Amino acid sequence: MKKETRKDLKRGEPHSERAGEAVLGDGGRAVLYRALLELTCSRCVGVIREGDLFTRGAGRAGGPPLLRLCRGCLPFRVGGGLLDALFSPDGGDKKLPDAPAADVTDKALSRLGPALAASKKRRKDPAG
């Protein structure tokens, strides 16, 4: 595996930081990273400049996400997360979804009913 050698980089210093979440071309989500120094893409060996965003992919055995993937190798778009909605120029004043329908609430209560009843019974009778 190719190791980058840089004389100005001290061992153990971070080379990237988490920068949010991305939506992939296939609709999936991935964690975004910001390069803190010039890096290379693990797939195309292209340059990821300092400050550029990139994603990470799993290695061959499905291990930890060590492979750096540039925007050209794994297209993504930034945004779609909660923080983006909160920090958007409109201040997150978009219309919120309607409250759940009554039938959904009734279904949830019917499933939780026995557990809630048992819990109430235990709280009333601590001995047992």
Describe this structure as you would to a colleague.
With 128 residues, this protein is an alpha+beta fold. The chain has a domain at 16-86. The protein has helices at residues 82-86, 102-124; strands spanning 16-24, 29-35, 39-40, 47-48, 53-57, 67-69, 76-78. Strands 6-5-2-1-7 form a five-stranded antiparallel β-sheet, with no helix packed on it. Strands 3-4 form a two-stranded antiparallel ribbon.
Number of helices: 2
Terminal residue distance: 61 Å
Assess the beta-strand content as a share of residues.
15-25%
The helix-strand sequence is EEEEEEEHH
- Strand line-up in the sheet with most strands: 6-5-2-1-7
Low-confidence stretches: none
What's the mean pLDDT score? 76
Radius of gyration: 24 Å
Helix content: 10-25%
Main β-sheet: number of strands, strand sense, barrel status? 5 strands, antiparallel
Instruction: Identify the overall geometry.
Output: elongated
Query: What structural category do the secondary elements indicate?
Result: alpha+beta
Number of strands: 7
Please supply descriptive tags for the structure shown above:
128 residues; 5-stranded antiparallel sheet; two-stranded antiparallel ribbon
